[in-house]
Amino acid sequence: MSLTQPFRHALPVNESLFHEALYLTHAGWELVAPGEPYPQRDAPFFYFEWREGRTLPEFCLAMVVAGSGEFQTRLYQHRLVPGDVFLFCPGEWHRHRPSLRTGWTLMWIHFNGDEPLRWLRAGVFNFPQNLPEIENRKLFRAQFEHLLASVHRNPSTNSANFSRQAVGLLSHCLMEVSGNPQHGKMEVPDNDCKAAVEYIWNFSHDIVDVPSVACKVGIPRRTLDRRFKAATGRTVLEEIQFCRVSRAAKLLQETTLTVKHIVHRAGFRSEEHLRLAFQKTFGKSPQAFRHQGGPGLAAKHPSRPASAGKPLKPE
Questions:
Q1: Of the residues 106, 136, 170, which one is the last residue of a structural domain?
Q2: Burial letters for 76-98: b for 16+ Cβ neighbours within 10 Å, e otherwise?
Q3: Which residues on adjacent β-strands are paired with residue 106?
Q4: How far is CA 80 from CA 97, 195, 211, 250, 260, in A?
Q5: Do 55 and 121 belong to one domain?
Q6: Opening angle at CA 48, ends 128 and 24, nearest 5
Q7: pLDDT tens for residues 281-290?
């Protein structure tokens, strides 16, 4: 069965599915023409105002098949191109839309269950910029299309087979948990710079500065700074700072730890250093970031190369 016409299905969830590792709640294949309003107002559950964004009570996994677009979270802005896969977790503020110039074709599923919630707590969904790294995108797309075709054939019955197919699909995305849950593996062409990135994101909760990173990589500091800037679009010091801000932001969002306790877990020397970093990055204090919610400002130093995730201007 080929997917040619757009559809959205809300699937029934009965008690038998609670015994599955995870279960689907919604699935869809959307085709949005260039210039077409988005989201479509004929789908109340999925509609949201771009200015306000939204949060969902479940996980959302999506893949851009054609066209282009953008998405934003509290930390990131990113331009989406064909082949990009993105994932949002329950309660995570976000918004996304196709480009007015190109429209897009998008596959997506919503899912929930004890197993994905356990994975979330373990940190396996902490992808850099919410973008899972998919090694075999052709296979991933084929499996995604097969799952959606299965759902579209019989949307009135939420089969356990859908759950098993979804688990197989997610297996492409699940990252190995390490000391670097926020960052994952970053595609940096320079091996020395890649090693520097890994060291920063694994140890920046401790005393890490530019000289120590250069010493760890084994090249002179000035050489590392020059090559790091060329490979990533930012300096080593900016990467260290962004790593710490990202870790602190995540702790503020997902835990009840006080700012005092977050300071050293995130690698800052004092509450004042944390406050200044948040003011510079988000335009607000850590306390305001936690309590006000909303998108904040996109981080100035995204954890992907600058060419892959530049801030976007509204179209």
A1: 170
A2: bbbebeeebbbbbbeebbbbbbb
A3: 30, 64
A4: 9, 27, 36, 23, 37
A5: yes
A6: 65
A7: 888 899 988 8
Residue type at position 23: Y
Instruction: Say whether both 165 and 25 belong to one domain.
Output: yes
* pLDDT score at 247: 82
Residues of the chain with pLDDT under 70: 1-2, 42-45, 128, 175-189, 205-206, 293-315
Q: Are 22 and 90 in contact (CB under 8 A)?
A: no
Q: Whole-structure pTM over 0.70, yes or no? A: no
* 272 alpha carbon, distance to own chain's centre: 29
Whether the CB-CB separation of 58 and 23 falls below 8 Å is answered with no
CB atoms near residue 4 (< 10 Å): 7
Which of 36-52 are b and which e, b meaning 16 or more Cβ less than 10 Å from the residue's Cβ? eebbeeeeeebebeeee
User: What's the CA gap between 41 and 8, in Å, rounded?
Assistant: 13
Verify that 299 and 159 share a domain, yes or no.
no
Q: C-alpha distances in angstroms, 103 versus 64, 70, 113?
A: 11, 11, 32
- Name the nearest CA neighbour of 111 among 162, 179, 66, 181: 162
Domain limits at 142? Answer: 7-170
Domain count for the chain, please give it. 2
Assess whether 12 and 160 both reside in one domain.
yes
Residues 143 and 15 in one domain: yes
